[in-house]
Backbone:
């Protein structure tokens, strides 16, 4: 599904990613962990196609296609979804209106008709239930005055509505209390299938108790310095990141 | 209103360049350039006006001659040469040989997308309107309904002939001849406009001018409107058109006077889309308008405006809250792009007790434009328990435009409650990226953000008008980011 080869990227001439190699197949869950400033969020932004980041070397393939030339919206149309660490507010635009626009824009890009209103409504109802979202929440302005937990739940709600092939969850656990974490993780688990893949970016092992990864990668100084299975996450939890840093410098 | 799709928006955006209209040299009856007392008298004669009207115009002209063009607004432009303008041009007749086939298909497409009827398209393009049985019957029914209720709705020139007692009683009482430079000019030379009278206790059953919009296209540059809502009556009045106006006059100085007698309510909505000038800032309409309403006891006046056109706008629809418990409202969206300049806002003059006013102003600036809100909230010494709430929000796109807020507050009564909120925000790259990531392209993302920003005001417009206005905002801001 996703194949990242020797990816180097910089922002404002500052190199942040220094040769990332990563292969994610359909049906898999990968966790990317690492200390602050290791490049985790940059990696997700570069995959999603944020313009401020310049790819200086390497390639990203999505389903065998090099996506270098694709804009962020085109990548979204191809099934890339990013759950933002800090979702932005759009005053006056309701959650429903936003999601509806996103779905119909994607359909249009694929040459499909708009989703009929009744189908849209049914889907919204179904996914809102899955994430235990109150109907009133859906008519509020996007992210405006939302609590940390509401913002993250809203991200996963959008993911459920858009049904991406590749979902990248950037620090989705930050700002969540344990109940919200469970709801969000349950939502993600229910959306998993053999046809899609999830990359979970996180600082802590906590989220991985709920969304169990097939692979764990540790990022340090813009490079994956260690890969393993979920046990690696537990080891990190226990020992911290210092030993990884030391290992990497040796 | 049919559903509006992205594909349609795209098509519209391709035609975003303002179509100046198709000037055809057809029969017209135009005065020589220049302004003096004789011209003023000639205009009055041409319109077959009674002596009192002629005298009133002359008085206005004398006042105007002594006045100086104001310079306090936050706009910069080359002052018009008032002696280089022709002050009378008979309404153009349709060219009998022109058909819609002669009109640029792209423009017609845009009209279609904005939901403008075939007849109206023809009117806008100076094409003769076919006598369509349907349309005639609609017009007749409309007139009949109004007449049954005793509502008068006609050109002001007709009202001067047919209802001189009403015109004489009210014209100039809200905006006197000496009010300001442009109002004085208008008073001297106005050629036409609308007149509306709603009798006591009558609720006007339809939005005035939703149908008659056709007949208003092409009214002159010095338009005069007078709306009188008698005791306990209600009227909703729509002015303007979302279609690009073909008016070739550079200077517009209109006057609108509203009178809401005891317990009456007037809702006045405007959509203004005059030629804003080229993307390089050449040409465009100067729009210097005086709009004011008077509220008697328990009366209410609401101004709602969506302004996307004109190169320079100078406009402050205001309310004089004279009667106790009267209410004034002002809801405005002003969009400026490229080199447009707008200095607009309102004045709420609280004279009566328990008077209330609300001001919601949304300014959107893009390109190299300058957008100013200028508002006055004045509480007179006898206005016990007056209340005002003002909210002025500015949205900036890019970093070459400007948003300014000039709120003036004068309270002479200690019981006054005045609230003012102001915000300035910028459409951020983060917001755009967020939308892009969800599959929404930048153009659509801006439309979404702008519509969200303007929602409080768009909601105040009558339904079909709101849909048109929303599309108009999108078209006006095309290409403003990037």
Residues:
């Amino acid at each position: 599904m996703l194949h990242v080869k020797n990816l180097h990227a910089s922002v404002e001439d500052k190199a942040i990613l220094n040769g990332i190699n990563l292969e994610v197949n359909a049906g898999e869950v990968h966790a990317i962990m690492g200390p602050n400033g290791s490049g985790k969020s940059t990696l997700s932004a570069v995959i999603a196609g944020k313009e401020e980041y310049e790819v200086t070397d390497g390639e990203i393939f999505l389903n065998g296609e090099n996506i270098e030339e694709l804009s962020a919206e085109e990548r979204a149309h191809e099934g890339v979804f990013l759950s933002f660490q800090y979702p932005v507010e759009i005053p006056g635009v309701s959650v429903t209106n936003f999601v509806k626009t996103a779905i119909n824009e994607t359909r249009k890009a694929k040459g499909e008709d708009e989703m009929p209103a009744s189908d849209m409504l049914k889907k919204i109802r179904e996914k809102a239930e899955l994430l235990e979202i109150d109907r009133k929440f859906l008519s509020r302005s996007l992210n405006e005055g939302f609590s940390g937990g509401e913002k993250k739940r809203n991200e996963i709600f959008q993911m459920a509505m858009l049904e991406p092939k590749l979902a990248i969850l950037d620090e989705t656990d930050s700002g969540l209390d344990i109940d919200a974490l469970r709801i969000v993780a349950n939502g993600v688990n229910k959306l998993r299938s053999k046809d899609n893949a999830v990359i979970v970016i996180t600082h802590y092992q906590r989220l991985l108790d709920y969304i169990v990864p097939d692979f764990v990668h540790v990022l340090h100084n813009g490079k994956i310095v260690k890969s393993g299975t979920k046990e690696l996450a537990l080891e990190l939890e226990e020992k911290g990141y210092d030993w990884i840093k030391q290992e990497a410098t040796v | 209103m049919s559903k509006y799709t992205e594909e349609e928006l795209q098509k519209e955006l391709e035609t975003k360049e303002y179509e100046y209209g198709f000037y055809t040299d057809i029969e017209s009856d135009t005065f020589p350039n220049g302004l003096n007392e004789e011209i003023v008298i000639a205009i009055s004669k041409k319109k077959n006006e009674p002596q009192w009207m002629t005298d009133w115009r002359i008085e206005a002209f004398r006042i105007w001659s002594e006045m100086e063009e104001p310079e306090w607004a936050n706009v910069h432009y080359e002052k018009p040469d008032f002696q280089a303008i022709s002050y009378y041009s008979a309404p153009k007749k349709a060219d009998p040989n022109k058909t819609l086939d002669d009109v640029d298909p792209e423009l017609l497409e845009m009209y279609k997308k904005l939901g403008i009827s075939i007849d109206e398209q023809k009117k806008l393009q100076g094409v003769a309107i076919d006598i369509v049985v349907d349309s005639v019957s609609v017009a007749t029914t409309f007139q009949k309904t109004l007449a049954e209720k005793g509502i008068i709705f006609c050109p002001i020139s007709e009202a001067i002939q047919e209802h001189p007692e009403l015109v004489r009683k009210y014209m100039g009482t809200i905006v006197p001849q000496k009010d300001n430079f442009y109002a004085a000019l208008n008073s001297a030379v106005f050629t036409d406009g609308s007149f509306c009278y709603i009798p006591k206790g009558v609720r006007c059953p339809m939005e005035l001018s939703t149908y008659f919009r056709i007949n208003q296209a092409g009214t002159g540059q010095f338009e005069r409107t007078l709306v009188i809502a008698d005791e306990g009556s209600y009227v909703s009045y729509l002015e303007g058109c979302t279609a690009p106006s073909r008016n070739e006059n550079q200077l517009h100085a209109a006057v609108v006077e509203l009178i809401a007698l005891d317990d009456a309510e007037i809702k006045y909505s405007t959509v203004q889309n005059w030629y804003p000038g080229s993307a390089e800032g050449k040409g465009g309409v100067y729009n210097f308008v005086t709009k004011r309403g008077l509220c008697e006891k328990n009366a209410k006046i609401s101004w709602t405006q969506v302004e996307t056109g004109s190169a320079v706008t100078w406009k402050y629809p205001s309310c004089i809250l004279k009667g106790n418990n009267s209410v004034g409202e002002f809801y405005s969206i002003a969009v400026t792009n490229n080199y447009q300049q707008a200095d607009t806002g309102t004045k709420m003059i609280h004279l009566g007790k328990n008077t209330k006013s609300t001001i919601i102003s949304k300014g959107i600036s893009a390109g190299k434009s300058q957008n100013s809100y200028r508002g006055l909230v004045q509480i007179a010494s006898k206005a016990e328990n007056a209340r005002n709430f003002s909210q002025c929000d500015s949205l900036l796109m890019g970093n070459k435009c400007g948003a300014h807020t000039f709120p003036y507050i004068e309270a002479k009564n200690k019981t006054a409650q005045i609230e003012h909120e102001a915000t300035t925000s910028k459409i951020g790259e983060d917001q755009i990226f967020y939308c892009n990531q969800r599959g929404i392209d930048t153009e659509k993302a801006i439309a979404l953000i702008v519509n969200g920003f303007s929602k409080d005001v768009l909601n105040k417009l009558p339904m079909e008008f709101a849909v048109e206005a929303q599309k108009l905002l999108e078209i006006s801001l095309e290409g403003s980011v990037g």
